Amino acid sequence: MTKQTGTENTQLFDGGGNNVPAQGASTKQGHAGRTAVPPPASVQNPSIPPGAPLPPGYLVAEYVIERVLGQGGMGSVYLATHPLIGKRVAIKVLSAAWSTNPELVRRFVDEARAVNKIGHRNIIDIFAFGQLADERQYFIMEYLEGETLAARMERGPIPSEDLQWIVAQACSALEAAHQEQIVHRDLKPENIWLAAPKHAEPFLKILDFGIAKLIGDTESVNATQTGTVMGTPHFMSPEQALGQKIDHRADIYAMGVVLYRLLSGTYPFDGNTYAEIVSKMLTQEAPPLRESDVPSDELRDLVLSCLDKDQAKRPTSARELGRSFARFVAQASSAGHQRSSAVASTTTALPLPNVETQLGFQETPRPSGATDPEIRKSSTRKMVALGFAVLAILVTVGVLMLGKTNQRRVESSPPAQVS
């Protein structure tokens, strides 16, 4: 239920029998006969200028703002906590300037509708929507510890076993969206979240369906009414960059760019300006992936097929892309293990150090085909040589001692007279 507090719509919740309503707040019998009361925080927010950042302690619906998580051109995302049960959420607030634009407000609402229509575990969950006192729109979504795929890529190459679940879950989420006739239009590493929960395996969430559209919409699927192309140039398909109608294969292209970057560390088409990037993408073929980066011919061909300018030559679905990627990676890994085993079987183990090597002797490696008698002869020769060396040292010591004795005798005789 909702209670008007003058300037804010504050959501009430079932507080149970142990809570006391805030001063001046009315009470009603809620679900199961319990009393619905405001959260144990002030229901009257401090006055802030319209459009100002939300300060810590500010109440939005049932959640108290803690801090800013991120800011962008369209608004800000805040970390907030439910004061009673401690649940943490992320609240996305549309900026004041955009909140007065009906088209952008509609797109903001469409994002919340899209993710709930898809309802997939690898797509961010949005579960509440509302409006602040200054008429800024907001929605509340799940908060997840972790980092974006872009941030993870900056820390270095991603192991093959991690690439497999990342690509599998991303393709699964895209397939679910496409089954609901929704195309993301802005898939990129910054919109792929790698969640790292405390007590579970890491998993992926696709974020920001803010420019997602229904396939077959009567409006242009990739441009606004003013003709502004929507998307990120490095990841836009040719048809998207040209302002043409698009379908799910635009997301297949974007996923191909993500794979290209994951495997090579570079973009297939790069430049300093939007026009330069799009020009290369429309007029050039993507540079082949290096065999040193991707040892599998099939995997290299799969990634490049995603980037084909002809939509019909791309993988037909995200499901097909995900399955093909998994199969080719598994084949490449199996071939790699076989090569490693073959190398290991032909490699002679290094000998353990022995007394002779520690004393500076070079141990002669066993010749190919050498028999045990030959080895024993070699060992006998070494022992004889070592015996002669010891004997020589003893003789040398004896000679030196004899020389010192003669010297003492000479020194004890009277000096010769000089004529």
Task: Please describe the biggest sheet, giving its number of strands, its sense, and whether it closes into a barrel.
Answer: 6 strands, antiparallel
The helix content, as a percent range, equals: 25-40%
What spatial order of strands do you see in the largest sheet? 6-7-8-9-11-10
Low-confidence stretches: 1-35, 218-227, 340-380, 393-419
| General form | globular
What Rg is obtained from the alpha carbons, in whole angstroms? 37 Å
Straight-line distance between termini: 134 Å
The number of strands is: 16
Q: Could you give the order of the helices and strands? A: EEEEEEEEEHHEEEHHEEEEHHHHHHH
Structural class: alpha+beta
Q: Per DSSP, what share of the residues sits in E-state strands of 2 or more residues?
A: 15-25%
Q: For the residues shown, what is the average pLDDT?
A: 75
Compute the number of helices: 11
Describe the overall structure:
By secondary structure, the chain is an alpha+beta fold. The protein is built from 11 helices and 16 strands. The protein is globular, with a radius of gyration of 37 Å. The model is unreliable at 1-35, 218-227, 340-380 and 393-419 (pLDDT under 50).
